[in-house]
């Protein structure tokens, strides 16, 4: 079995390396200093398990996991606060709270060996990512992968979102990007005072709206600064009027 350590703290990586010596069946394929390196290493080595720090430069551990399809088994190594630890526990995802002992490390490894790559673990990891997105630190930007490269999109740069099968199209002045999420996810995560779901398939940044025009019976269209036209349903029109104070 192959493992990768992704942590920007050299001391934390060295502790995991030391503790892993008790498990000859687990081969350490790579150690990475940030999420960018982590994604490259995972693509190269296809590990069974990663030890993942949350707070890292460039992109954090949650954002890195979102870009992986499918994600390997995960044991989080974190200095997160009590609130976040409760989130880990409620989603049945194992974690090591820094600084952690060899005994605690052994328990995490044994749990992973028993449940690794099972539906329970994958469901727990996905649920945790959904919860993490609700925190202020996570809903100020969107991280996407395009042509093998990672792009960070600040929320204020987004003009509108459009449903596209299992993905959402993120429209910005620099272009359009795909994210493997649902419209419901973004409706829940983005600030409803700035992003309004005008239609079943569209969410609009109200800062980009120049005017609202009638379209057909009980439907409208918003014209954005970019010239783009976004449909507005009857329900969406009511939401827009409330947010815009009309």
Number of strands: 15
CATH-level-2 architecture of the largest domain = 3-Layer(aba) Sandwich
Spatial sequence of strands, sheet with the most strands: 2-1-3-4-5
By DSSP (H or I, 4+ residues per run), the number of helices equals 8
SSE run: EHEHEHEHEHHEEEEEHEEEEEH
Distance between the termini: 61 Å
Shape call: elongated
Approximate strand percentage: 25-35%
CATH superfamily of the largest domain: Response regulator
Overall pLDDT score: 87
Number of domains: 2
> Gyration radius, to the nearest Å?
21 Å
Enter the CATH topology name of the largest domain.
Answer: Rossmann fold
| Coarse structural class | alpha/beta
Summarize the main sheet: 5 strands, parallel
Which CATH first-tier class of the largest domain would you pick?
Answer: Alpha Beta
Provide the descriptors you would attach to this structure in a database record.
246 residues, Rossmann fold, OB fold (Dihydrolipoamide Acetyltransferase, E2P), 2 domains, five-stranded antiparallel β-sheet, 8 helices, elongated
Spell out the blueprint of helices and strands.
Blueprint: E1 2-6, H1 10-20, E2 27-32, H2 35-45, E3 49-53, H3 61-66, E4 73-78, H4 82-90, E5 95-97, H5 102-115, H6 119-132, E6 141-146, E7 149-154, E8 158-164, E9 167-172, E10 175-179, H7 183-189, E11 195-199, E12 202-205, E13 209-214, E14 220-224, E15 229-232, H8 234-244
Parallel strand pairs: 1-2, 1-3, 3-4, 4-5
Antiparallel strand pairs: 6-7, 8-9, 8-12, 9-10, 11-12, 13-14, 14-15
Characterize the structure shown.
With 246 residues, this protein is α/β, with parallel strands linked by helices. It is built from eight helices and 15 strands. The longest helix is centred in the middle third of the chain and has 14 residues, at 102-115. The mean pLDDT is 87. The chain folds into two domains: 2-132, Rossmann fold (3-Layer(aba) Sandwich), CATH 3.40.50.2300; 144-244, OB fold (Dihydrolipoamide Acetyltransferase, E2P) (Beta Barrel), CATH 2.40.50.1020.
């Amino acid at each position: 079995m192959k493992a990768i350590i992704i942590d920007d703290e050299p001391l934390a990586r060295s502790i995991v390396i030391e503790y892993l010596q008790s498990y000859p069946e687990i081969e350490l394929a790579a150690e990475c200093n940030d999420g960018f390196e982590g994604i490259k290493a995972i693509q190269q080595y296809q590990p069974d398990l990663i030890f993942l720090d949350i707070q890292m430069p460039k992109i954090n551990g949650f954002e890195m996991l979102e870009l992986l399809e499918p994600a390997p088994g995960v044991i989080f190594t974190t200095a997160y606060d009590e609130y976040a630890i409760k989130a880990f526990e409620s989603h049945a995802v194992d974690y090591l709270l820094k600084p952690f002992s060899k005994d605690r490390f052994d328990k995490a490894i044994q749990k992973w060996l028993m449940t690794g790559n099972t539906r329970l673990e994958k469901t727990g990891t996905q649920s945790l990512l959904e919860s993490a997105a609700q925190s202020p630190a996570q809903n100020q930007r969107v991280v996407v992968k395009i042509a093998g490269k990672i792009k960070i999109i600040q929320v204020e740069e987004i003009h509108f979102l459009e449903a596209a099968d299992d993905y959402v199209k993120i429209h910005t002045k620099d272009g359009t990007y795909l994210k493997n999420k649902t419209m419901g996810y973004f409706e829940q995560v983005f600030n409803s005072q700035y992003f309004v779901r005008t239609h079943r398939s569209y969410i609009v940044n109200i800062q980009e709206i120049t005017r609202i025009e009638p379209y057909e019976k009980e439907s409208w269209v918003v014209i954005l600064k970019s010239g783009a036209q976004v449909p507005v349903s009857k329900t969406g029109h009511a939401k827009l009027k409330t947010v815009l104070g009309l």
